[in-house]
Amino acid sequence: MKKITLSLVGISLLFLATSLSLDLSKDESKIAVHCFEFRVTCAGKSGFYDTVQASSWGEATKVINAKYPNCKATQVKQKDC
């Protein structure tokens, strides 16, 4: 009887540990993505607006600067996509 009880307790703990680890891995993948709108001004041209998706303002700035390397980009607004 003790062997069966210990086995059931062990299986229950294993199941609990597995379900908790799966739940934690789901939380890590839920990185919020926002839309950042920038006013882009290039030399000799009129300005325009462009929107990029990123998880942070720093990442959005890197993306917009890589997209338009010789232009000046100023963030206008941020919103959820």
Q: Which radius of gyration do the C-alpha atoms yield? A: 25 Å
Q: Unreliable stretches, pLDDT < 50, 5 or more residues?
A: none
* Percent of residues in β-strands: 25-35%
Straight-line distance between termini: 57 Å
Strand order of the largest sheet: 2-1-3
Q: Which descriptor suits the 3D outline?
A: rod-shaped
Which structural category do the helix and sheet elements fall into? alpha+beta
Q: Strand-and-helix sequence, N→C?
A: HEEHE
What is the number of independent domains? 2
Compute the number of strand runs: 3
**Percent of residues in helices:** 40-55%
Mean pLDDT: 78
Major beta-sheet overview: 3 strands, antiparallel
| SS field, number of helical segments | 2
Describe this entry's structure for a reader.
- A 3-stranded antiparallel β-sheet has the order 2-1-3.
- The mean pLDDT is 78.
- The chain is 47% helix and 32% strand.
- With 81 residues, it is of the alpha+beta class.
- A hairpin with a 5-residue loop joins strand 1 and strand 2 (48-54).
- The protein has 2 domains: 1-30; 34-80.
- It has helices spanning 2-28, 57-67, and strands at 34-42, 48-54, 71-80.
Offer a quick outline of the entry.
This protein is α+β, with helices and mostly antiparallel strands and 81 residues long. The protein contains 2 helices and 3 strands. The chain has 2 domains: 1-30; 34-80.
Topology (elements, then pairings):
Layout: H1 2-28, E1 34-42, E2 48-54, H2 57-67, E3 71-80
Antiparallel strand pairs: 1-2, 1-3
